[in-house]
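Bench log, entry 3. Co-assembly request; chain sequences pasted below exactly as received.
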Amino acid sequence: MILQLDLESETPIYMQIKQQIMEGIALRSLVPGEPLPSVRSLAADLGINMHTVNKAYKLLKQDGYILIHRQKGVVVHPDGVPPADAEFLQGLQGDLRPLITEAVCRGMEKEQFIKKCKDIFAQFERERGNE
Amino acid sequence: MAYVFMLVSFIPVVFISVCIPYVTRRTESFGVSIPEEVYHSIELKKMRKRYSWQTALFGAAVMILWWAATTMFFSVESPVFLIALFVFMIGSFMIYLVYHGRMKSMKEKEKWHEAVSEVVAVDTGFRNRKITISLGWYAVPLGVALATLIFTMIFYDRMPGRIPMQYDFDGNVTRWVNKSYRTVLSFPILQLFIVALFLFVHSIIAKSKQQIDPANPEQSARQNQTFRQRWSVFNFISGTAVVLMFSFTQLSFFISIPANVQMVVSLVVVGCIIVGVIVLSFTTGQGGSRVRTGQGKRGEVINRDDDRYWKLGQFYFNPNDPAIWVEKRFGIGWTVNFAHPAGWGSLAAIILIAILLPILTSS
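Structure output for the full assembly:
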């Protein structure tokens, strides 16, 4: 897959990397077991500090998206991403809360918010179908 | 004969310098990064043309001066030729600097980079694909070099007591040396050095920074893959040819080979390599920019503007970039990130060995 980073963006670079690799997995443009570039070579190709890439990879590993082997290098987790368990749902609730708070403050309708969510889900399904 | 030889080496140098603006990436012009559409503008077309003419005329002037100097004042073999080459390189760099300056002020005025967002793109699967030939191929030149070495050791006794070390351009021996292990092994050792050198270049081709155009990432990644594949094949072929050439020279220590045959062989090898470089540069372009692939989409994004890290538009100095080898901006091939000692250190080591080798092997 093609990673595209905006180095001037307000979103930190490690977040952009993490986000895009997660999207790549969601869209199946990265398949389970697929090798990813090493920290060194990805940092060199992007022209950024190795710590930045390391940070992104560490977070991805923590969440079970990738595996970091000492010999084999970095791969997309061969067993797939762990399913949405109770712990994930709890985290999700925590993440959604500030977003919904903001929506409520701004007087957004519940249906409107849910429609936005549905649109994004639909977008994923569409793009997955095209692959 | 001497004139022919020097012309053969001078003309390609001038020719390649003249052509450089035409083989760079379309996103760069005289060491300045630009949007691709601008590359095709009438103004830039004119600039390239003018640069080429000026460089060509300058080259011709240096050649005429060199010719006049050698016929009137100096003997042909004097280092005047090297001085002439040096003068040409400095002079053409000056011409480049003028255009680089113009390009820079043009960019400041036109503000190309403000309208679109700057991104950097990377293909995560790039290094999983085949981007160079396999390293195993280098067993061929290595085998040839080792065979030459072993052959020389076995048949050391059959060699004459004096061996020719240097010829003038007319094929007469100008320097004889007495046979010793050190002198007869100088070519096999040189061959091993050459194999190591070409292996080093191979690793640069394989490991250098992945530079793809975010405006058209898929196409650009494919072009870059082709670019590396072709140069890695060429690197292997030319390395092997040079090693074989020295084996042939070594053979002349054992059986008598006419000097002019030897000269023709080396001229053919060197000539073919130069022609190969030119053909490959034109068909592939820097980074594969001349490789034809399907037209892609473009427009919304532009490559990151890293002009500030390119001193004089040609010397890359970026301590924040872990990459050691990057594509040249104005030319074909790769250059070093001068912010990393590992990069310029390895270059310095190669030059040092190249200087020391003849000193150590000749008595």
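Chain B touches chain A at residues 117-128, 207, 209-210, 212, 214, 217-218, 221, 301, 304, 306, 318, 320-324 (CB under 8 Å). The CA atoms of residues 284 and 290 of chain B lie 5 Å apart.
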